[in-house]
Design a protein that fits this description.
The protein has about 300 residues and is mostly helical. The protein folds into three domains: about 90 residues, no CATH class; about 110 residues, Cytochrome Bc1 Complex, Chain D, domain 2 (Orthogonal Bundle), CATH 1.10.760; about 90 residues, Cytochrome c-like domain (Cytochrome Bc1 Complex, Chain D, domain 2, Orthogonal Bundle). The chain is built from twelve helices and four strands, in the order αββααααααβααααβα. The strands form two sheets. Strands 1-2 form a two-stranded antiparallel ribbon. The longest helix has 27 residues.
């Protein structure tokens, strides 16, 4: 399919291409018939190097002209078979999208048995399989590292997948659900509703929940506001809810930073985060293998911490 916004441009491009080929053919033909009479020496163009080296206006050799003719014929054949003349798709109807789809389908058909084999294995068991781990890592580095990093430890706004802190749950089923359907997390902005001072008060109460340095007076005032507003998502004890993806505020794991300044920014402006759904793009087999890889990362880290 052409991307021209108007058919005029299709005609314009076609005209330029056709006229260019006609002109080149005429030019080549006109030079092909030029021959020097016997005994006549070609004129000197005036270009001279050193003392004796000069450029003569000799006709091009026929073998060289033949190469130009072959080039023009090749161009005509190409333009008949493939896109190049405006909106004309070519006899073969080739497009880069169709080629990509064909190559992708061939590749998927070749590797599908591998993923089908993994799909039959429980995720917990699969997470311990070394071969599956390498395959899962390859998928992760292709599709997930852009946000979560090559080491899966994430960055500001992107969760660390190697610990055991989960916004929506870290069971195999939940990880599959997250990869398949994506997640859309949002915390509303309370800056306008609370005002600057009350925002600072709530921030200090959150710091108290997390056992960090805080202003006791502000935290005391902030506790009241927290109990009135914030408990709806973060619960009365501040441990959040995996049901709605509300973070636990009592640990030392922060998606956007746990300093007073960062918490104030979060309360004031809110947060919006989205992970895309991968089910349609990856399919069940790849999702299953990715889930096993991620599950293995978090549980490997947890096992190391418990040693």
């Amino acid at each position: 399919m052409s991307d021209f916004i108007s058919q005029f441009w299709s005609y314009w491009v076609t005209g330029i291409v056709v006229l260019s080929l006609i002109w080149l053919t005429y030019l080549l033909r006109s030079q092909s018939v030029v021959k020097l009479p016997k005994g006549q020496q070609a004129d000197v163009t005036g270009h001279k190097w050193d003392e004796d080296l000069e450029e003569y206006n000799n006709p091009l050799p026929m073998w060289w002209m033949g190469l130009f003719y072959i080039t023009i014929v090749t161009a005509v054949v190409y333009l008949v078979l493939y896109p190049g003349l405006g909106s004309f798709p070519g006899v073969l109807k080739w497009t880069k999208i169709s080629q990509y789809e064909q190559e992708s389908a061939a590749k998927e058909a070749a590797i599908k048995p591998l993923y089908d084999k993994y799909l039959k294995v429980d995720i917990v068991a699969l997470s311990k399989d070394e071969e599956a781990h390498k395959s899962g890592q390859s998928l992760f580095l292709t599709y997930c590292m852009q946000c979560h990093g090559s080491d899966a430890r994430g960055a500001k706004g992107f969760p660390n997948l190697t610990d055991n802190d989960w916004l929506y749950g870290g069971t195999p089923e939940k990880i599959v659900e997250t990869i398949n359907n994506g997640r859309s997390g949002q915390m509303p902005a309370f800056g306008a509703a609370f005002g600057e001072e009350k925002v600072k008060d709530v921030a200090n109460y959150v710091l108290k929940l997390a056992s960090r340095n805080y202003d006791a007076v502000r935290a005391g005032r902030g506790e009241t506001t927290f109990a009135q507003v914030c408990v709806a998502c973060h619960q009365a004890d501040g441990k959040g809810s995996q049901l709605i993806g509300a973070p636990n505020l009592t640990d030392k794991i922060w998606l956007y930073g746990g300093s007073e300044r960062a918490i104030i920014e979060t309360i004031t402006n809110g947060r919006k985060n989205r992970m895309p759904a991968w089910k349609d793009a990856l399919g069940d087999g790849k999702v299953h293998l990715l889930a096993a890889y991620v599950y293995g990362l978090s549980h490997h880290e947890q096992a190391a911490q418990n040693k």
